Amino acid sequence: MLISNVVLVVFLISQLCIGVIGNTSLFILYIYTFFFKPHFKKMIDLFFIHLTIVNMVTIVFILIPDIVGSFGVPNFLDDVGCKVVLCIYRISRGLSISITCILSTFQAVTINPGNSQWAWLKPKLSTWTFSSLLCSWLINLAIYGYMVEIVMAKNNSTQVGRVYLHAYCQSKKLGNHNSGYFMSITFMYDFFYVGIMMWTSLYMVILLYRHRKRAQYLRSTSLSSQQSPELRATHSILLLVSCFVILYWLNNLITLYGVYAPTKFLNLEAVNAFWAACYPTICPFLIMKNNKLILHFTSSFSALRMTCFQRAHRG
Asked: CA 262, CA 278: separation in Å to the nearest integer?
């Protein structure tokens, strides 16, 4: 195995471990909050739980085939395995896009001033939570169910032309009308959600800027020194959206290059898998950064450590 391959495998395995541990920890934290700390529970937490599960599925189904393939294991996936793995991966990726978009939209409505033209939407958010998640599932199942028809296991021949390649899988040649319609629909779907994300994020940035200017004008210590839970959640979601948009475009550019390149380069699928799994890997840590329960535990631990230090110093 070449040194470059060894480095790539180490990166993929590290990413798999970090991503699974991070998302599992966040999922356990939210389950603990729901059952034992209900006063910390918020409506938006349901989206975070859903995003955590989707991210974990994405990491497992995109990285494990490439890790196994890097060790030279032949025929790890057959036609049925390829259809299942790639279909689940694309559905979970689509859900990650739609849920991040819904999070951004819900938060933009939540922090809206009471006199805004969008204020009438606030009371309806709780009733739209389940329906928005259900619609996301149905839309992604309807779009990516078509992958069952176009995906198959790799054959031994050299691939040329417009073909989507995976560690053990490939698509049929993307030249007919159906595959063209499928790619057009997927890109329009992605652009629609990414466009809404960028618009709502810009709107939240404007609202935060106005809040900061108003706080400076009032010279209020309570407003400037301590953030409200809504502002902390807004900062987390803005970080999520920023990371998602950057990594989304990078992943898409590599994917398009792999499809349309006349010659298929070695390890391009593994490199693309690494970038595709970056957002699901760092997502739980961005969410935990401003989680109220973690901040509560951190402040309690700091107070306990300070108390022990003072007692030891006096003794």
From this structure: 27
Q: Tally Cβ neighbours within 10 Å of residue 15.
A: 21
Tokens of 300: 């309690």
**CA separation for the pair 234, 205 (Å, rounded):** 9
Q: Which SS3 state, helix, strand or coil, does residue 170 take?
A: strand
Per-residue pLDDT 10s for the chain (315 aa) are 567 678 888 999 999 999 999 999 989 888 888 888 777 777 788 888 899 999 999 999 999 988 988 888 888 888 888 889 889 998 999 999 999 889 888 888 887 776 777 777 777 777 888 888 899 999 999 888 877 887 888 776 555 555 666 777 877 766 555 666 777 788 888 889 888 988 888 888 888 777 677 766 665 544 444 556 666 677 778 888 888 888 888 888 887 777 777 666 667 788 888 888 999 999 888 888 766 666 665 655 555 566 666 666 665
Burial class (CB in 10 A: 0-12, 13-18, 19+), 18: middle
The residue length of the chain stands at: 315
Q: Which residue has the tokens 């989206």?
A: 47
Could you count the other beta carbons within 10 Å of the beta carbon of residue 285? 15
| Cβ atoms within 10 Å of 116's Cβ, excluding its own | 13
The DSSP output letter for 169 is: E
Sign of torsion over alpha carbons 65, 66, 67, 68: positive
Under 8 Å CB-to-CB from 294, ≥6 apart: which residues?
29, 288
List C-alpha distances in Å: 162 to 56, 89, 108, 261, 269. 30, 21, 40, 8, 15
Q: Per the structure block, which two tokens stand in for 138?
A: 């149905």
**pLDDT per residue over 25-57, tens digit each?**
989 888 888 888 777 777 788 888 899 999 999
Residue type, 194: V
Question: Are the CB atoms for 288 and 32 separated by under 8 Å?
Answer: no
Contact predicate 154/73, CB 8 Å = no
